[in-house]
Amino acid sequence: MITFRHVTKRYKNDNYALKNIDLEIHSGEFVFIVGASGAGKSTLMKLLYAEEKPTNGIISIGGLNIANIANNRIPNLRRCMGIVFQDYKLLQNQSVYDNVAYVIRTLGISSREIDARVHGALKIVGLTDKIKAKPSELSGGEQQRVGIARAIVNGPPLLIADEPTGNLDPKNSMEIMQILDQINQRGITVIVSTHDNAMVDYFRKRVITLDQGQIVRDIQAGTYE
Fold first, then answer.
1. What is the pLDDT of residues 52-92, one digit of tens each?
2. Which three-class secondary structure string do you get for the chain?
3. Which of 42, 95, 169, 193 could form a disulfide with 33 if both were Cys (CB 3.0 to 4.6 A apart)?
4. Taking the model in full, what pTM does it have?
5. In angstroms, rounded to a whole number, what is the distance separating the alpha carbons of residues 58 and 68?
């Protein structure tokens, strides 16, 4: 599903975020991307949803090379994936319902279909009782659940989560990871970058470790260390 071939990302002053990365992630996998701060995790994630473009190399998603994708095609690319952020990125003046519906209201589907999808996504994350609430009325864990519901409401084959538990306590972190695991069990490919070694050790998924922009470890059913 996802292939990196000789991917390098170099910033100004020859600062390398990633160096000659070769990587394959298959459809339906759950993958943790780990490493110290500055190892290249966030850059790798941003390359996946074309927030950044590589200096060299090929990035293929579903057979499409996105390494040099035109800017006007990026919105279509992102409709095929869900993205979850550490800081939630919710619309603060909108309800939970409207935050989740926001991404599918431009697709030309009926209001009945939008309603069904929003309720379905909120049911998966356990927030149907908060449908009218504003983000300011929710805990951090609940806000991240809204972010996950928004990411899956369009039924994407791929979910990218960049430090999804970075602002949460251990209890909420576990709940968020359990939701991501349940989503993966529905056949969706899930890629999570994280510093949370306890979560990585608990779930024993595939673990890819980055160090100074290079893959130094790639192990199935692995741990953080």
1. 999 999 999 998 899 989 999 999 899 899 999 999 999 99
2. CEEEEEEEEEEHHHEEEEEEEEEEECCCCEEEEECCCCCCHHHHHHHHCCCCCCCEEEEEECCEECCCCCHHHHHHHHCCEEEEECCCCCCCCCCHHHHHHHHHCCCCCCHHHHHHHHHHHHHHHCCHHHCCCCHHHCCHHHHHHHHHHHHHCCCCCEEEEECCCCCCCHHHHHHHHHHHHHHHHCCCEEEEECCCHHHHHHHCCEEEEEECCEEEEEECCCCCC
3. 193
4. 0.95
5. 9
